């Protein structure tokens, strides 16, 4: 009897294990003995998701070997070297909407491997930005980036300051709705070298991205439909003039032309910058007393408008499957798992923005119901800001154009060239690049 | 049956020849070949697209490349000369020290022990316009109330990079010159003293000629190092802003690895090698002359 009971329990246990195994396996398949090699973007904010990989391994019987984990810029160089050396038989790679068009032929078209129903669950704009020449090169993960305006709330509660501003500029001092208002207020608030009105990324792709979104907000564009540069239009000149005016007025730190994201984040967290257009990943950092002097004084609002629309340069991370991968089905399964609703809910609980519509809705609801008004305010601003999001032109030459354009933007900002001269010079060189690339 | 045997010297050298060919010769030939192609890292097939001298023609007419080339020569000249003057001064002072000289010599070598990347980060922080040490000192002592843009202004940025480079490597000169001072015979110095020479005359006509071979060896080694300056510049300014601190290697690495135009970058590499060769020939020529003057070689 005793033995029978034990046997019965064991059998029941095995049945539960098999049942639970098959329940998960139905979703992600069974790939016993398969080993998937992956090259992933590394960094603290990305690690939580990788912790879930063991669940996928348990469910499918496959194993994942992370053969490289580096920053995106480093992994980009490594992937290019792999392409040159022909060593691209690893299976899953981290990707980014700004980088994806460069890797011609490296990754499979996921439209052929993932059902249309599955793809529908993602935000349509993110799927468009993941698609190059009709091929869906990656499935987006919960690392969507669009910038909104962070500001120090105390600047808007001082009545004397408000009166002084109104007397000088003729309108009420309030959180800026337009980029012209940002400029006015930045110049008004600035008291260098102790306090600055605003700041901007000043080199590499970062400043070109900021300029690009400002050109769009002014009603222009970076390239026309034939990929010919048109950023030296009047809209482009107005956009660049905004950066130049702020620099000349001393409203931004003198070293802003050498700043990129970390410098800007640390700058705003030091409490010495009034207005800061920045990414979602900083929200928690800015309002954490451990890391930020501005904590408790940070407001978050939708990004301001240019003369035509709001800015909204955006990008997102994703996962791709290489064409040379031996077990594409298993690799696709892993990518689907890493970008699933469940994974996105888990990853975005850390503060990043999702790329699935259902997860957006769930997160906004949870924040509204919760007891953290700052998180709710930030998420609402990002949800509103995401409506205006647009990606960079999906061409392999995007990165190369930014290397041509950014020194010219810097030259105008520092006064080495006039705005028109700098943009015309950059456009002439980008034009040559596009002709070399065979676009026209 | 007659079996031809390879000469013994050749057999003994063969492992070294194979290793050298694998790690130096073949990559050199490969990069030389690729400089005549439209090779892009992201399009491996472009390695076989022969475009003749198009990359070289492009470089020769590219004002930005020549600006970076000229800036590199200027950087090299100023840094080498200042390192020489400071290194010579330090070596002469340390040579006079009679107590704790060994400790001083060790301390002298500290900057050489740091990785150039760390030195770059250190000086990037020191010269930061907003939170940097230098501006902080200038502002708190009342010398300046402005935030000096050390890494932005063209002249200040070059100065900052040179400062970092000189801080890190002056001790190379100091150590080599000190070795020269230790090896120097005492007799001519004592004879000069007996003959009534002033300190300056002794230094100018006895010490300095004796040190010249050591100085030129240091110059040769450092000229190759400085001509390859990359780490510190890349970390501190990235060649910017507005190309104000762009040197050959920052330009080349961006072209090769970020823009993926490896063919063009390799062509730049071969043109810039000329610079290193010219400096090396010049210093070896001077070294031979200095040794001939001392009667220690031709």
Write a concise synopsis of the structure shown.
The complex is a heterodimer of chains A (440) and B (298). Chain A is built from 18 helices and ten strands. Chain A has 440 residues and is an alpha+beta fold.
Keywords, separated by commas or semicolons:
heterodimer; A: 440 residues; alpha+beta; five-stranded mixed beta sheet; three-stranded antiparallel beta sheet; 18 helices; 48% helix; 12% strand; B: 298 residues; mainly alpha; MetI-like fold; 72% helix
Descriptive account of the structure:
The complex is a heterodimer of chains A (440) and B (298). In chain A, 48% of the residues lie in helices and 12% in strands. Chain A is of the alpha+beta class. In chain A, the strands form 3 sheets. In chain A, strands 2-1-3-10-6 form a 5-stranded mixed sheet. Chain A has a 3-stranded antiparallel sheet with strand order 8-7-9. In chain A, a hairpin with a 2-residue loop joins strand 4 (131-132) and strand 5. Chain A is globular, with a radius of gyration of 24 Å. Mean pLDDT of chain A is 91; it is low at 1-26. Chain B is mainly α. Chain B has one domain: MetI-like (MetI-like fold, Orthogonal Bundle). Helices cover 72% and strands 0% of the residues of chain B. Chain B contains 13 helices and no strands. Chain B has helices spanning 8-34, 54-60, 63-96, 101-108, 110-113, 116-126, 133-140, 154-183, 187-194, 199-227, 231-236, 248-258, 262-294. Chain B starts with 7 loop residues before the first helix and ends with a helix. The chains are: A alpha+beta (440), B mainly alpha (298).
């Amino acid at each position: 009897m005793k033995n029978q009971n034990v046997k019965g329990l064991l059998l029941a246990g095995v049945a539960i294990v098999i049942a639970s195994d098959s329940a998960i396996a139905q979703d992600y398949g069974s790939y016993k003995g398969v080993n998937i090699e992956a090259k992933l973007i590394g960094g603290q904010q990305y690690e939580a998701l990788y912790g879930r990989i063991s669940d996928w391994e348990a469910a499918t019987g496959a194993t994942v070997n992370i053969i490289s984990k580096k920053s995106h810029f480093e992994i980009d160089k490594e992937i290019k070297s792999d392409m040159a050396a022909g060593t691209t038989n690893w299976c899953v790679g981290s990707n980014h909407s700004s980088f994806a068009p460069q890797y011609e032929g490296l990754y499979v078209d996921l439209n052929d491997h993932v059902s249309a129903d599955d793809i529908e669950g993602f935000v349509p704009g993110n799927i468009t930005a993941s698609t190059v020449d009709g091929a869906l090169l990656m499935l987006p993960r919960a690392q969507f980036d669009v910038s909104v305006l962070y500001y120090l709330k105390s600047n808007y509660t001082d009545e004397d300051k408000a009166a002084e501003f109104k007397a000088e500029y003729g309108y009420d001092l309030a959180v800026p709705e337009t980029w012209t208002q940002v400029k006015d207020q930045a110049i008004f608030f600035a008291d260098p070298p102790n306090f600055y009105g605003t700041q901007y990324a000043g080199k590499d792709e970062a400043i070109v991205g900021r300029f690009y979104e400002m050109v769009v907000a002014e009603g222009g564009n970076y390239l026309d439909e034939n990929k010919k540069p048109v950023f030296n239009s009047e809209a482009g000149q107005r956009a660049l003039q905004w950066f130049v005016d702020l620099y000349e007025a001393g409203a931004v730190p003198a070293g802003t032309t050498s700043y990129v994201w970390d410098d800007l984040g640390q700058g705003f967290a030091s409490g010495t910058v009034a207005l800061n257009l920045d990414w979602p990943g900083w929200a928690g950092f800015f309002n954490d007393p451990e890391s930020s002097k501005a904590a408790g004084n940070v407001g978050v609002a939708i990004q301001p408008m240019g003369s035509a629309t709001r800015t909204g340069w955006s990008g997102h991370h994703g996962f791709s499957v290489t064409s040379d991968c031996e077990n594409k089905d298993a690799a696709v399964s892993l990518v689907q798992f890493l970008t699933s609703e469940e994974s996105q809910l888990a990853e975005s609980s850390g503060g990043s923005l999702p790329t699935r519509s259902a997860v957006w809705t769930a997160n906004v609801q949870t924040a509204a119901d919760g007891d953290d008004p700052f998180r709710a305010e930030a998420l609402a601003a990002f949800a509103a800001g995401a409506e205006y999001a647009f990606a960079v032109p999906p061409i392999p030459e995007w990165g190369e154009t930014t290397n041509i354009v950014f020194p010219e933007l810097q030259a105008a900002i520092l006064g080495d060239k006039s705005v028109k001269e700098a943009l015309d010079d950059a456009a002439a060189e980008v034009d040559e690049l596009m002709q070399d690339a065979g676009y026209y | 049956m007659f079996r031809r045997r390879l000469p013994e010297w050749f057999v003994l050298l063969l492992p070294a020849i194979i290793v050298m060919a694998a790690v130096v010769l073949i990559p050199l030939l490969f990069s030389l070949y690729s400089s005549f192609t439209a090779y892009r890292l992201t399009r491996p097939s472009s390695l076989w697209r022969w475009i003749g001298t198009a990359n070289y023609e492009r470089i020769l007419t590219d004002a930005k490349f020549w600006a970076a080339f000229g800036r590199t020569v200027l950087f090299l000249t100023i840094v080498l000369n200042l390192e020489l003057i400071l290194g010579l001064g330090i070596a002469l002072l340390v040579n006079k020290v009679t107590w704790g000289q060994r400790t001083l010599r060790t301390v002298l070598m500290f900057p050489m022990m740091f990785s150039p990347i760390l030195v770059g980060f250190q000086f990037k922080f020191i010269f930061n316009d907003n939170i940097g040490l230098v501006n902080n000192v200038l502002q708190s002592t009342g010398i300046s109330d402005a935030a000096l843009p050390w890494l932005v202004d063209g002249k200040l940025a070059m100065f900052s990079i040179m400062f970092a480079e000189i801080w890190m490597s002056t001790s190379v000169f100091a150590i080599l010159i000190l070795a020269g001072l230790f090896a120097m015979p005492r007799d001519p110095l004592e004879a000069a003293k007996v003959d009534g020479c002033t300190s300056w005359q002794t230094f100018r006509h006895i010490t300095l000629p004796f040190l010249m071979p050591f100085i030129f060896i240091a110059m040769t080694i450092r000229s190759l190092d400085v001509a390859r300056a990359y780490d510190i510049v890349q970390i501190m300014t990235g060649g910017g802003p507005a190309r104000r601190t762009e040197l050959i290697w920052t330009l080349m690495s961006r072209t090769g690895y970020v823009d993926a135009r490896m063919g063009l970058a390799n062509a730049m590499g071969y043109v810039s090698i000329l610079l290193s060769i010219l400096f090396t020939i010049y210093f070896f020529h001077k070294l031979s002359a200095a040794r001939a003057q001392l009667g220690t070689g031709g």
